[in-house]
Amino acid sequence: MTKTADIATTATTTQDYVYVAEYLQRIGTISLIISLQPGFSASHIQFPDKPSRTINLVYSQSRCDNKSPPTDELSSPIDLPVEFALRFAGTLKKLSGGRTELLSIRTDPQQDLNKQLNEKLSFLDDGQDSNPWSIKQLKRLETKSKIDGSIANAAQFKCKSCESKLISSETITTWKALPSETWAEMMDFWHCHKPSDDGGHNHSHAHSDVPDSKTTTTAEPVPSFNPSYAVSSFEAYPSTALVGLSYILFHRSHFTPESFTELSDIDGARFPLLTCRSCNAWLGYVDSLQTFRVFKWNLTLVSDSTLLLPSLYPDYLFLSATIAELISSHGIYTFSLLEEDYNPDTKSLKADDRELALIWIFNPDIHYCTNANDCSPAVSESETTITTERGYKVFYSIDPTVMPELKETRGEIEQLYFPRKVIDSVLTHLDNNSKLYPPEVKTIGNKNWNVSILDRLK
Fold this sequence. Notes:
Helix content: 10-25%
GO molecular function: cyclin binding; ubiquitin conjugating enzyme binding; ubiquitin protein ligase activity
Mean pLDDT: 79
Region (Disordered): 200-220
InterPro entries: UBQ-conj_enz_E2-bd_prot
Protein name: Ubiquitin-conjugating enzyme E2-binding protein
């Protein structure tokens, strides 16, 4: 079973109803929301004779003429994220008979304590492995020569837009992890605020090697930010690729000849741009003469099936991984999404200051499963396996008329710039997952916030 944090969620496969079961670990409760389709009404919940992760919903269907008695009662299993408490075993819970039912089910206290302990023990091992194409995954591609001279674990990265070959891993013998993408910012902050020799603190935020005469009166030089802290200063080598959170640094020699185009002097670009020669899709930046920064969402990976590496990821997972990094490093839980994208017609990079969405991470780690996203329990002849997904419980808005007012209630907000295709993927995903919830609990805050789940990589 997937490691569970504060909340876990599952949903049924039946089309008669959908349910959401959220495990509230800190208070030892499963919150269960059942939404029946029109024409159906719930009768009761039947608990098995011993603690289990499965309970049974008993419900019935109304006759078309609304005058005849309902059909015979139907029974369908509901999979819970954890076992219910012993005191519920063998009991029956009467329901209201409506189309929407909200229940609270207690869990085993010892089970809750064990899960909290497992969380703490596994925290240090989680790390970057929850990122798409993490260093732990890509190290499986480290090439080794076979006895016959052929290369093992060879793989190809292709352009996600047109499937043309860009990179072969045959020349990459080593994959190394880059430091956090917020590392340079943290080092810069430390360099500004570190104790001075006399025990005091220099609070100047000037990052120039030359002191500003208008603000600096001391003869001592103002401490400057060391450019070597910047992630952009890292260089790939002919045998080595460097793996970041949202991008990979490749050496020029890793690319298939004539598979890319370098565009310099592009308005709005921090570095020369790197594009696919076949379809003109934006791939990333030319960090230096020999190092290319390629965003993961622009790539497809073709590898040996034995390596168990995904060929691609949904675009929304890259924003999800970025949010996880910022929560961990900055403790920020509210984000505004803005567009920064390349226009192949004008060959320009443009950042749009219009906010496309406001996202509030209400709970940073939930586990769930739902038939709405085709991740329902897999059924075999012998058993049912519960498939649990990981995500954030989020409140979000895409209404530009209410976002300014909502921002005033949220304190610090981080602006995130992504290509439009990534943002569209996120908004579509949130809209789909919001359909899990019945109208009664689908919105909050005078209906200004929509309730949904943003997936994370397990």
